């Protein structure tokens, strides 16, 4: 659970390769087929730092004269989601890669930045416990345990503050 904390989706090439290796291993272990479309769909998602929708993915997989239908991409996404290789961000109807293996029924918290569109995946034992209590009290059986929080990431808040300082001083220095 510790390695799960605060690892964003600002994928390095290494974690991308790691994700593909994990997908291959998992398919072998479970006797599932890692078809070329499933593989390429995962590659496209892993190469992106923002959540991608099925239509964006279909477009990236299509070549002139060889269109990949969104419905095929949706099937590949179902497979990848069921096997814990990607997550669906419900509020965006878009997908992000998952770089860790989750425990059964483990909750996930997504921090979604409205300014830059980045998504940070994290989990919290305290939120888990609180959620368990709340669900038990309500007698509610959850189909998923994913919490999505929209707002501004640390980097974007920093940019905003610097922009504020700049405009109050003498203008026209563009050090990013
Ligand atoms: Zn995950
Ligand atoms: Zn941001």
UniProtKB/TrEMBL annotation:
<keyword id="KW-0238">DNA-binding</keyword>
<dbReference type="InterPro" id="IPR036388">
    <property type="entry name" value="WH-like_DNA-bd_sf"/>
</dbReference>
<feature type="binding site">
    <location>
        <position position="102"/>
    </location>
    <ligand>
        <name>Fe cation</name>
    </ligand>
</feature>
<feature type="binding site">
    <location>
        <position position="128"/>
    </location>
    <ligand>
        <name>Fe cation</name>
    </ligand>
</feature>
<feature type="binding site">
    <location>
        <position position="153"/>
    </location>
    <ligand>
        <name>Zn(2+)</name>
    </ligand>
</feature>
<keyword id="KW-0804">Transcription</keyword>
<keyword id="KW-0408">Iron</keyword>
<keyword id="KW-0678">Repressor</keyword>
<dbReference type="GO" id="GO:0000976">
    <property type="term" value="F:transcription cis-regulatory region binding"/>
</dbReference>
<protein>
    <submittedName>
        <fullName>Ferric uptake regulator, Fur family</fullName>
    </submittedName>
</protein>
<dbReference type="GO" id="GO:0005829">
    <property type="term" value="C:cytosol"/>
</dbReference>
<feature type="binding site">
    <location>
        <position position="116"/>
    </location>
    <ligand>
        <name>Zn(2+)</name>
    </ligand>
</feature>
<feature type="binding site">
    <location>
        <position position="156"/>
    </location>
    <ligand>
        <name>Zn(2+)</name>
    </ligand>
</feature>
<comment type="similarity">
    <text>Belongs to the Fur family.</text>
</comment>
<keyword id="KW-0862">Zinc</keyword>
<dbReference type="GO" id="GO:0045892">
    <property type="term" value="P:negative regulation of DNA-templated transcription"/>
</dbReference>
<dbReference type="InterPro" id="IPR036390">
    <property type="entry name" value="WH_DNA-bd_sf"/>
</dbReference>
<dbReference type="GO" id="GO:0008270">
    <property type="term" value="F:zinc ion binding"/>
</dbReference>
<keyword id="KW-0479">Metal-binding</keyword>
<keyword id="KW-0805">Transcription regulation</keyword>
<dbReference type="InterPro" id="IPR002481">
    <property type="entry name" value="FUR"/>
</dbReference>
<dbReference type="InterPro" id="IPR043135">
    <property type="entry name" value="Fur_C"/>
</dbReference>
<feature type="binding site">
    <location>
        <position position="113"/>
    </location>
    <ligand>
        <name>Zn(2+)</name>
    </ligand>
</feature>
<dbReference type="GO" id="GO:1900376">
    <property type="term" value="P:regulation of secondary metabolite biosynthetic process"/>
</dbReference>
<dbReference type="Pfam" id="PF01475">
    <property type="entry name" value="FUR"/>
</dbReference>
<dbReference type="GO" id="GO:0003700">
    <property type="term" value="F:DNA-binding transcription factor activity"/>
</dbReference>
């Amino acid at each position: 659970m510790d390695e799960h904390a605060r690892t964003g989706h600002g994928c390095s090439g290494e974690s991308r390769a790691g994700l593909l290796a994990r997908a291959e291993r998992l398919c072998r272990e479970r006797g599932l087929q890692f078809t070329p479309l499933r593989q390429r769909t995962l590659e496209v998602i892993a190469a992106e730092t923002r959540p991608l929708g099925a239509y964006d993915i279909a477009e990236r997989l299509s070549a002139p004269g060889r269109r990949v239908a969104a419905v095929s991409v949706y099937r590949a996404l179902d497979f990848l989601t069921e096997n814990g290789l990607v997550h669906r961000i419900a509020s965006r109807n878009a997908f992000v890669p998952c770089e860790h293996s989750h425990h059964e029924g483990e909750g996930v918290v997504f921090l979604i930045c409205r300014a830059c569109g980045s998504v940070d995946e994290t989990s919290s034992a305290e939120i888990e416990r609180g959620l368990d209590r709340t669900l038990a009290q309500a007698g509610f059986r959850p189909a998923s345990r994913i919490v999505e929080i929209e707002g501004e990431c640390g980097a974007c808040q920093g940019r905003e503050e610097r922009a504020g300082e700049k405009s109050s001083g003498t203008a026209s220095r563009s050090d990013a």
